[in-house]
Design a protein that fits this description.
mainly alpha; globular
């Protein structure tokens, strides 16, 4: 089960989903890494 989306910006939520889909389609881990970094809190940056 996935956690509920914490992001309120719908464009960002869509982008994260698109990046994860691109990662699954191409097998490139870079897109999944970018999507996971975007979905996390920015407090640690």
């Amino acid at each position: 089960m996935s956690r509920p989306d914490k992001k309120t910006n719908q464009h960002l939520v869509d982008l994260i989903g698109d990046l994860k889909a691109q990662s699954r389609d191409t097998g490139a881990a870079v897109w999944r890494d970018v999507a996971l970094r975007l979905s996390k809190s920015r407090k640690n940056w």
